[in-house]
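Technical annex B. To support the medicinal chemistry partners, we prepared a structural model of the target in complex with adenosine-5'-diphosphate, based solely on the information shown next.
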Amino acid sequence: MIVYEIENLCKTYQGQTQPANKNISLQIYQGEIFGILGDNGAGKSTLVRQMANLLKSDFGNITFFQQNITEARDLVQMNVGYMPQESGALNNLTVSEALYFTAHLRGMSRQDARKECEALLDTWQIGYLRHQPSSRLSGGQRRLLRLAVAIAGSPPVLILDEPTNDLDPQRRKLVWDILRRLNTEKGTTIILITHDAIEAEKAIQRVGIMVSGELVAVGRPSELKAKIDRILRLELFFSPENPPTLPSDLNYHFLEPGHWQVLLQWQQVTSTLNHLNLEQIDDFRLYSATLEDLYLHYATKP
Ligand code: ADP
């Protein structure tokens, strides 16, 4: 069963010359965990906000369970738990009020919503915060509350924009465990944007890679990773005023001033290191490629 059918989606924000989304077509199937990877500014949040019916597209079409989402506002609202990336406070509600009201608004009776609230406080290990106003939570606590709110009332579809941002490793693990459990036990369809590629690789069944507003690859992580099987990631650290020169067949990916990443074939390693003036470089590191490197692979493709 197809949950989302997205066809030729395009979106350019007012005042921008470059489109945030270009001709995106994609299907999301019921019961899958679908990951969206891509650099900052690649158009990931724009895409999921369109799927959550929070942003209109300029062209193209999205159907949700075969209904055009622009005509199915209530259907989307009742069935999609969306967690935006920015994690502002939830009005002036306390933690337990936010959970209770969301569950009730998603159709649960008062009694069931109270039970749901207790279950969520327990699952997300935030019971000790139940009476805290959401405005007084730390970034990590607020992220957990936002996730619990997205899941309140067990919507069959979740859209999560960077669910493990702001979290320490222990809480990240909690999030991935809960998401996997929701997917296997309740069949929840989960669409998520993440930079947590190593953990994502264990949980997601399909991945979409976005580069400059385009969806450049979609597939199972193992299928896509086969393309970078013999690829290594070289990180270079140098003084920003004095960047190194790379062999002409290589492209770098800028991470921050004085820090680049370069994807290499195994057989290019020696010649690349020989080519670089190592005195110009403060440090370098070589890694085997992970799912995270997939979007680098596409982003730096000549
Ligand atoms: P990502 O989630 O991959 O980081 P976004 O979807 O947030 O990417 O952004 C895609 C592009 O659209 C970026 O160039 C960004 O600057 C631009 N953009 C995002 N939101 C707005 C907005 N509200 N108004 C104007 N431009 C925006």
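Notes passed to the chemistry partners:
The chain has two domains: 2-219, 225-299.
The chain has a mean pLDDT of 91.
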